[in-house]
Write a sequence for this structure.
């Protein structure tokens, strides 16, 4: 049921987004209704991945919780890639270059590189219990890096260092804010649905591996 609601919500969000007038400090507006929701969803999914992993570590060690944590981190990583790619298009339209080493671009890139390394470290361990225990630390570290790279890093730099439009949300009119957060909610729901599907596939894969190990 949530999948249908999320799909309809996203479709309505697209219609609303393209109907919006140009936002404050932006040369083009529609891409913001896709880029920003992906960036916000990335952080949300990384946070949920950490929560599922902590739940595995301290509340029963259910392999399904670890599978959910991995799935949410993977989908969050994909959302981050989309956010980075659309951010480069956004940058080209607004600032004239796809890549300008802006603190926001660097922060998101650093976040994605961190998660790529964490996925590799998880895959380097064969023992399932050790892998899941290490992943708890990895997922918590990852979400801290994501929060720093995506938001805190830009905020602690001197004013004017970043080209990123910090005041778009506060200075744009209420209709723009409504459209933006409408899309954020829609894409977040859609990506959570995708993460749940990926988690079910991971759970089935783990069960098949366990059965194969028992038979052998």
């Amino acid at each position: 049921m949530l999948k249908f609601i999320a799909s309809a919500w996203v479709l309505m969000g697209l219609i609303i987004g393209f109907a919006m007038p140009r936002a404050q400090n932006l040369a083009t507006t529609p891409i913001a209704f896709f880029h920003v929701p992906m960036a916000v969803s990335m952080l949300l999914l990384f946070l949920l991945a950490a929560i599922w992993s902590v739940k595995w570590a301290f509340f029963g060690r259910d392999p399904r919780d670890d599978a959910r944590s991995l799935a949410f981190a993977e989908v969050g990583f994909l959302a981050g890639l989309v956010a980075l790619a659309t951010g480069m298009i956004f940058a080209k339209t607004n600032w004239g270059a796809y890549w300008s080493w802006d603190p926001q671009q660097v922060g998101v890139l650093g976040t994605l590189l961190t998660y790529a390394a964490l996925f590799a470290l998880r895959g380097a361990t064969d023992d399932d219990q050790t892998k899941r225990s290490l992943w708890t630390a990895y997922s918590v570290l990852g979400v801290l890096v994501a929060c720093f790279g995506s938001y805190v890093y830009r905020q602690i730099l001197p004013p004017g260092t970043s080209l990123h439009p910090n005041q778009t949300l506060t200075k744009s009119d209420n209709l723009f804010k409504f459209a933006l957060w409408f899309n954020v909610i829609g894409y977040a729901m859609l990506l959570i649905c995708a993460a749940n599907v990926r988690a079910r596939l991971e759970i089935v894969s783990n069960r098949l591996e366990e059965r194969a190990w028992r038979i052998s």
